[in-house]
User: What shape does this take?
Amino acid sequence: MGLRTKFNLVLILAFSIGMAGAGYISHEVLQQNARTEVLHTAGIIMESAMSVRGYTVDEIKPLLSEQMKDTFLPQTVPAYAAARNVMRLRNKYPEYTYKEATLNPTNPASRATEWESTVVEYFRNNLSEKELVGERQTATGLSLFVAHPIQIKKDGCLACHGTVEEAPATMLALYGSAGGFGWKLDEVVGSQIVSVPMTVALDRANETFQTFMVALGGIFFIVFIMINLLLHYIVVKPVKLMSAIAHDVSMGKLDVPECQPRGKDEVASLAESFNRMRRSLVNAMKMLDE
Assistant: This one.
């Protein structure tokens, strides 16, 4: 096995280990960045919903208080306002969802599904938790969700959701008395859940990873060629020349020209030493012939 072959085997092994390590680390970083990006988007949607809820309570509901005596207006309900706001967003981004999933809702559209019920139960069993982040498979692929508990903190909520008898007649006329009652102070009755698809972010991360690995492979190939060229002209070629000269001298060819060392590196020093040895050997062989 030649010097070049041994050197290339070591080089390929080193680059393979380096590429495997770089690939693993970059893949994990890109995947984590994709998840962070999706989580950031979900957080923005959640904060937007919270802002709409606050705006509805502070500014919309007082303006419509008189009309509420005659007709129940859903626009005064924070949950309704937040859901309608995100619904407009879904006209452009249909994969994004926001829902105030409730176990016992007034509006049937807010009733929690099976998986949403598990989120609500989590908050009911862990009252100190204020946020839950998770992933789940959907029909469109992997989706990340962020959930906050809906906990009754104000007595005003019980005016509509305490008992049927105390509920506004206008609300009963619109939604009926089948659900949304019996809520209690400090009880977790539901959860705000934002779902954002991860498919786009993960696909983008995978494309970036593939581009990075192709570029890294290309750099390796260029470096590999350059190192082999340097190895050939700086080491292999001079050593082969010295080997050929040594072979000719050993076969009695004393007129073989000397090596022409280039530079001041170790190979040039070796060539100078080799030339001195050759001259000494030639002189010794001439002395023997005499």
The chain has two domains: 14-197, 206-289.
